[in-house]
What we know:
The complex is a heterodimer.
Chain A (H helix, E strand, L loop, with lengths): L1 H18 L6 H19 L3 H28 L5 H24 L15 E4 L2 E4 H21 L2 H11 L3 H4 L4 H23 L9 H16 L4 H21 L5 H15 L9
Antiparallel strand pairs in A: 1-2
Chain B lengths: L1 E10 L2 E11 L4 E6 L5 H8 L5 E7 L2 E2 L5 H6 L2 E4 L11 H7 L13 H8 L1 H5 L10 H14 L4 E5 L7 H16 L3 E5 L3 H7 L2 E6 L2 E7 H6 L1 H8 L2
Parallel strand pairs in B: 3-8, 3-9, 6-7, 7-8
Antiparallel strand pairs in B: 1-2, 1-4, 4-5, 9-10
Helix pairs in contact in B: 3-6
Amino acid sequence: MGLIYALVAAGLSLIFGLMDVVNFAHGELLMLAMFAVFVLRGVSGADPLLLMPVVALLLFGAGMAIYRGLIARALSVQFNRGMVQIFVTFGLAIFLRGAAQFAFGGEFKSVTGHWLADRSVNLAGVFLPLPQLAAGVVCLLAFAALLAVSRTEFGRALEATREDREAVALIGIDRDRIFALGWALGCATVGIAGAMLAGFYYVNPNVGTSFALIAYVTVALGGFGSMLGALVAGILIGEVEAVTAALFEPAWKQIGVFGIYLVVLMVRPRGLFGKL
Amino acid sequence: MLRIEGLSAAYRGLKALQGVSMEVRKGEIVAVVGANGAGKSTLLKSIAGQVATEGEIVFDGASLRRVAAHDIARRGVCLVPEGRRLFPRLSVEDNLRLGAYARRGEANRFKPLDFVFTLFPRLKERLGQRAETLSGGEQQMLAIGRALMTQPRLLMLDEPSQGIMPRLVDDILAAITRIRDTGVTVLLVEQRLAEALEISDRAYVLQTGRVVMSGAAADIAADSAVRQAYLGL
């Protein structure tokens, strides 16, 4: 689970690091990806693992559309820009949740009968469920892909835009295009996480809320804008959650997570690997 | 090459430019001089599309009004701003290569690198270093180098000697002349009046946002009355 948290947080961190916009609809985008798997599997019968690239592409497009349709406009306002950005993404979250409720109803759904369902591997006496294991591997691959992107020329342009969004225009870089691609990449990342999560987790219009909450903690712990921080913090939070659930009641599992969050805020507000 | 007519601009609530008209011809070095607050930097920012303006700016026959800043750079007008605006955490090499980012897909887009290294051999020695670790002079070289990577036809330099050790100022000014010799037109804003006028063909004197004098750089440099009246020297 920690790697899923990490990947959800990576998308959030990428968008925040690039343009200082906290995406309050990030959890709902995860929910959207999970419903996309649910619907596409119903229509095509394809396995969630095969649907993952399709969902990632869909979310990539959604990210681009959200930036062009909403965020770019919010960034262009002259006054109270910070508040406008908050309300735009918050409003988007409410809209997406409501739309999902309207389209699919409020009951819990699950993606069943796929290749990996109910299968596990025995690793030295420890039985690991295959859907979770596959999700972990895919998340690690997604992180490797993000790292690879950061080393490309486009990755350098992203970093440059992050450092000085005005100066990039002086050398002919279209800041708006970089922002749109950053959003698209951040949304595709959460799309991958959602597609893998749908293989073993319930699907519901409210499913994104708790993941988004943990993603904010993960980003704060790892450091705003740091991909490595998101990875390390995600794994750490997954472990803390598991240990807390094992030591106490499963219902208490988030107590450890938010305990860590409070400690980080007090001791190291910029997080473990924060640059900002 | 560049024609400006009746250009007005307000910057941070103040009227920084008021009806400025000027012309820059191909292959020239044109200096814009004036006391602090005369509107020199605003003029360059206006041409680069970074400040809202009224009036007309025409580059190579096409209006630059309502053209986005990045498109102006792509058309061949590149500004090296005051303060350089490098990407401090990126390496020297990344900063330079990003200058050619907008020309992705074009063959030979990194060709200007050779000229940049000929002009500023120090940059070649510091390719892997972060931009923020360079000295002031080296940062200015990098800023000019990055601008040259965009393959500009008009290079605008805002206070290139600012914050640089005196012995490096001559290097930078010599580099500007060499850049012009390759066919790049230069519009130069510089506080070091004597040096700026020495390497320029023509000059415009700005005072409180208006052009109060223009002519051959040598004539303005020689006119002590002008220097006293408008430049505070």
